[in-house]
Design goal:
The protein is of the alpha/beta class and about 230 residues long. Helix content is about 30%, strand content about 30%. It is globular and about 50 Å long. The model has no long low-confidence stretch (mean pLDDT about 95). The structure holds adenosine-5'-diphosphate (2 copies). One adenosine-5'-diphosphate binds next to strand 1, strand 2 and helix 1.
Amino acid sequence: FNAITARAVRKVYATPSGAVEAVAEASFSIARGDFVSILGPSGCGKSTLMLMVAGLEPATSGAITLDGLPVNGPRTSAGMMFQDPTLLPWRSVLENVLFPVSMCRPVMPDDRARAEQLLRMVDLWHFRERRPRELSGGMRQRVALARALINDPRILLMDEPFSALDAITRDEMGLALARIWDTTRKTAIFITHSIREAIFLSDRILVMGRRPSTIVEDIRVPFARP
Ligand code: ADP
Ligand code: ADP
């Protein structure tokens, strides 16, 4: 099975001012362990497509499967990152990373060990007892990355995670993500407006068009990262 398969996926939002077709008809498949970027103009449906893959937004028609099985609502095994890391301000960095675990069951010593290991990977182990407001923007996004990986999800979904960061921090985050992704090899979807970032990080780039909002190009990035 492919890790992710979308077949003729369409999404229409009902709004007070009428129906909005957010995704016209998208079909693609992503092989296990691939890192795929999605590029496209604002409002073309990238976030909607990602939310459907995550099982957080039902498709109006079409089908999405993960490892051959239909996406399973909010129980879908996806780690997610957004532009805003939304950390809990009154909890430590370590507790923020453990938060998805604490939502499902009591936190065990093994969970703490894993959270500490992830914090080492994102270079924040020394900051594990700090509060989010003590950290820089790039550091907060690295906490969000560790949190996205804590439940060992099958896929990693990232919606413009670096867009709010300055250019230099953004480049550092790209390097950190590339390094982490090289060790975890999670199947990943990464929404970005930066073609440079997409080329640097991805095995493949899917380009969405505005109207109809569907995938208009599927580009295999022909060179490996250094
Ligand atoms: P992108 O991520 O490419 O900017 P989105 O998926 O956020 O695009 O949005 C696609 C279209 O769907 C836009 O026209 C947007 O206004 C609309 N849209 C997104 N979310 C909703 C929603 N929850 N309700 C109604 N319309 C929405
Ligand atoms: P990032 O690239 O993650 O945004 P910065 O460039 O802001 O991080 O900071 C570089 C280094 O400076 C960090 O890795 C950290 O060691 C230290 N640092 C940054 N902000 C703080 C802070 N508020 N308190 C303590 N150390 C900090």
